Amino acid sequence: MKFYEKYPKLKQKAFLSKILTDTVFSTMSLEDQQVAKSKVEKIVDGILKEKELKGSQFFTN
Fold it and tell me: Partner of 57 at 20 to 30 A CA spacing, among 5, 13, 31, 41?
């Protein structure tokens, strides 16, 4: 079984964005790095948009 067959929800952009944002924010908080969650959200969204523009068939509609 392939990874995305096992975890199809990761192909949903909104879900993946939330998971990545929460993971990065919590990891940085544990390391005493004070970064606003909104800033982390902007960075994650920018990276995901960049991947989409490069033509990666990553997300489902």
Answer: 41
DSSP string, 16-60: HHHHHHHHHHHHHHHTT----HHHHHHHHHHHHHHHHHTT-----
Interval 5-58: pLDDT, tens: 888 888 888 999 999 999 999 999 999 999 999 999 999 999 989 888 887 666
Check the CA dihedral 27-32-35-38 and report its sign: positive
| Cα 2–chain centre separation | 20
Report in angstroms the alpha-carbon separations of 25 from 13, 15, 49, 57, 59: 18, 15, 19, 27, 23
pTM passes above 0.70: yes
